[in-house]
Amino acid sequence: MGYIADNIIKTRNALPECVTLVAVSKFHPEQAIIEAYDAGQRIFGESRATELATKAKSLPDDIQWHFIGHLQTNKVRMVLPHISLIHSADSERLIRTIDEEAWRINRIIDILLQVHVAQEESKFGFLPQELIEKLENGMLNGLNNIRIRGVMGMASNTDDEYRITDDFKQIRATFDTLASGIFAGNNDFSIVSMGMSDDHPIAIAQGSNMVRIGSSIFGSRNY
Ligand SMILES: *Cc1c(COP(=O)(O)O)cnc(C)c1O
């Protein structure tokens, strides 16, 4: 058995049963995905539209492709036919575009609302309070071709575990506020996507139920 299959199995075995593993295969070749697939993995995460579309066309049909990176509105049409979940719905404009394009191809697209809590300026997403207010003010009104499944977020890029813990707490708290507020009674709203290779144990402790793990499965990436 190759090291990727081995890593998939080790990673899965270390996760609580209620936590879904997204194997982040961005920048890794199709052969690496096949190896993980043969070890039973079916959910893969990609962060570039062209790469996702190319891989999806040649790899097995029962793979569930998740989009996890910043998605430009002009790339929505390219990825949508292949997508099972978009983690990174990070602006009102993007959400509207996804809805329009989903309507065009007669699909309902599952998305997560990206929450921005990390310190870095460059990270995309809605601030927690901004998101809650926008939703209460009808941001999703009339959008019938998207289904909001939950939230996604990233912690600050730091070694400070207190800071990371606090970031994940804020993401989870945003989910809880929405789950008992605007999404009360909506069972579709159930996913908290947080945690990567280095910080997923902390994320799970803070209530993540979907982790996005790349380098500790596939090795480091050559950008
Ligand atoms: C690349 C990426 C990951 C995976 O990161 P690793 O550190 O390789 O596990 C997770 N989430 C997002 C949004 C990413 O872009």
Describe this structure in words.
This protein has 223 residues and is α/β, with parallel strands linked by helices. The protein is built from nine helices and eight strands. The protein has helices spanning 3-14, 30-38, 49-58, 76-79, 92-104, 128-136, 161-179, 200-205, 215-218; strands at residues 20-24, 43-46, 64-67, 83-89, 109-115, 146-153, 191-193, 210-213. It has an eight-stranded parallel beta sheet. α7 (161-179) links the parallel β6 and β7. It is globular. The model has no long low-confidence stretch (mean pLDDT 96). The site of pyridoxal-5'-phosphate has 12 residues, from β8.
Q: What are the salient characteristics of this protein?
A:
alpha/beta; globular; 8-stranded parallel beta sheet; binds pyridoxal-5'-phosphate; single chain; 8 strands; 223 residues
